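In practice, a research group might receive sequence data for several interacting partners and want a quick structural hypothesis before committing to experiments. The following worked case mirrors that situation: the sequences arrive first, and a predicted assembly follows.
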Amino acid sequence: MAIPEPSLRIVTFPELGQTQIDTDVVVVGSGAGGAAVAAELAEGGLKVLVLEEGPYFTTQDFRTDVTNVITRTMRDAGTTITIGRSPVQYLEGRCVGGTTVINGGMCWRTPDKVLKRWGMEHGLTRLTSKSLQPLFERVEQRISAREQDVGTEGKNSLVFQRGCEKLGYKTVRNIRNQVHCVGSNDCVTGCPTGAKQSTAHTYLTILCRYGGSIVTSAKVEKIRVEGGKATGVVARIQNLETGQWDKTLAVSAKIVVLSCGATQTPLLLLRNRIGNRSRQVGRNFTIHPNIKISAMFDEPIDTMRGAHQAFQCREFQDEGILIAPGGVSPPLMSVATDLFGAEHGDFMLKQRYLATGGVLVDDFAAGRVSLGPFGIPLVRYDITNADQHKFIRGAALAAEIYLAAGAREVYTAFGGVGPIRNGDDIRRLFLYPPKIEHTEYFTAHLMGTCRMDRDPTRGVVDESGQSHDIRNLFVADASILPTPIGVNPQETIMALATHIAGDVLNNWKTYRQVAA
Amino acid sequence: MNTTSQSVKTAQYRFGRFTRPIVLAVIGTMKPRWNDFDPPIDEEVCAHIERDFSRFPLRAKIMILLMFHVIQWGGPLARRAPVPFTWLSPDARADRLRGLRNSKRQLPHLIFKALKTMVLIVCYSRPSVEQYLGLVRSDWQMSRLRLREQLLAVDRKRAKLPPTPLPLGAADTVHPDDILQDEPVLLPYNGE
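A structural hypothesis for the assembly, expressed as tokens:
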């Protein structure tokens, strides 16, 4: 028996005979937001077309070498980086399923305190825990959010949990969108067993079941606006034979939904010079940054064998610090140290004994996504001193956890800081705080940039996800989150997209009249 | 319904005659080696870096080419070494890279990190290196795949599960195909 592949209706060059398509709704992007809104609208009876910039990959495509997957599935072949005090590498999926294809699959509901803050500070009074509960349940059902099967967690997660238990720190079992994840630990380079339920396996399958289609290798360049309302988009289509973006597809739609992610949605709006009367497009950019931590044990850990992340330490969530194990395959682990040559060979001989994890912090910083000279995208983000203090505290706590679990040495992402072996070394972190410029950061949780706010002068979209400036233009992706949420954002994005789809369905008559 | 994968067909890219020797010299210096095994993977790794390079956006390509030539000519230009990188002995090349790694300035350190990432990930994906370390990733993936096939087969034999959302953490699982077989459940959306 073979692992089933998702059943999708995918259209691309040269099968795409038309250059003009009419539809009810065009959704730009097929990630967490785009796929969810598209599937819900299609199920609600609307004619939906999804345009995805990247190509489609099957589960089998992920059974190859690491760089082959990274360079094909990620934006800019995985070379995306922020500019600022210390550059932060960030990852965005650029394929059918978007970042859900290359994320860890963590599913957490938006914390209640965050929703209350959205209500108080941004006037989003309809987004309460109570009103969102059915939507969260619906999302969790759709994407098969559940705990890891017992026995497949892997030692990398289990030693972390052991350390937390010894110190009395609260841990939770991760909820992930997976069906029988068997711990191949390749989440970040595409699930080779098909266990992770990316949107290609879930929402997009539902979309196609209800008559929707996905056009791949379609890069939207223009949003058509007539009389203050969005009327469609124009996309360039890539010829997969030649690699040239040599065909144009015009899509007329009653509603346009942008779901290109927290960097690409603001760039698309800025390039089209629309929807920015508030001057907030591209601003309020937060990234929920993280640093890597690794620990050497006397017992074999074999991080390659087990779930990417089976637990999270939630003891310090109120301080904005999340600590978690994070297993990666040996090729990715090889960049965890600054050694090379024979020294690196010796290090990797010991890698079976190495546990890996990370510290994520709720960031105070607000970066900006903008257009530079010649239209070059500029993604600026500066880690603040306050965030760095949290990272230092988080790294110290992670070191305590791993040392309590029996680690001999703990390594941090702080340049110039040696291995941590005991309490003296931990105290030294606070006495001589590592500089931001000497710290390696990483993220896959980009948010903000088109924030949702009831006030048109403070936000880009209203509580229904509709642009304050352009009627029938919606945004449904991570860019609408008004503040950092402190947990993995996938489920929040999907729940908000479901909320937006619900509003569109409830008010479809109005939107159709506006379009006419 | 289409379930075949897609990717752009591109010809194998090759670095130019001035750049390739620099790339090979960096690979030769950075690649892992052990007392009893010096993997002969330099050309193989270079070919993979060339494949990856061909997929990078133009600005990244320019930066990477510049980076290799900074490695090559940085020493003579900064009057820190009399000869280019490729002319140096293996030990001297390693010293030059250590200089970048230990630099207090951000740019040299970033160049080192970029080189390290490009070279080492590919090195540790080579079958000969995986076999030496006893961690053949493809074998591990296949064993997991077989296990998952067995688990799914067990699921299919189970009684049909209810269409409503399962409580989080429930031991039973529902396969997406089973969900799709059920009638769609439309929520009563409340606009206001």
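Before designing any experiment, note the following. Residues 167-192 of chain B have pLDDT under 50 and may be disordered. Chain B touches chain A through 78 residues (CB under 8 Å).
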